[in-house]
């Protein structure tokens, strides 16, 4: 599973070298962080609506869009998916209450 995320991260990095008229991702980078964040908000909303509708195929489709745009944001910020995976691994085995208590020691 992580291989797919790593492959996508590599492609997203490559798209930074392309012009906005050559690639959708390059056009997102060209429009800037605010535009990327707006796309994440739109995709999050579409994911919520799909979940409320209970359409499993739509939930998967919209979640994929949401994750994709979050990966674009990470790449834009010079971050990779492995950092998010590492954070999830750090939290693994912690209760939600323990994790929340530790947040005072980590930036939000």
Automatic annotation (TrEMBL):
Gene Ontology molecular function terms on file: ATP binding; phosphoribosyl-ATP diphosphatase activity
GO CC terms of this entry: cytoplasm
InterPro entries reported for this sequence: HisE (IPR008179), PRib-ATP_PPHydrolase-like (IPR021130)
Keyword flag Nucleotide-binding: yes
Gene3D superfamilies: MazG-like
Main location: cytoplasm
Keyword Cytoplasm set for record: yes
Subcellular compartments: Cytoplasm
Reaction catalysed by this enzyme: 1-(5-phospho-beta-D-ribosyl)-ATP + H2O = 1-(5-phospho-beta-D-ribosyl)-5'-AMP + diphosphate + H(+)
Keywords: Amino-acid biosynthesis, ATP-binding, Cytoplasm, Histidine biosynthesis, Hydrolase, Nucleotide-binding
Pathway as given in its UniProt record: Amino-acid biosynthesis; L-histidine biosynthesis; L-histidine from 5-phospho-alpha-D-ribose 1-diphosphate: step 2/9
EC assignment: 3.6.1.31
Gene Ontology BP, a term: L-histidine biosynthetic process
A Pfam match: PRA-PH
Family label: Belongs to the PRA-PH family.
Protein name: Phosphoribosyl-ATP pyrophosphatase
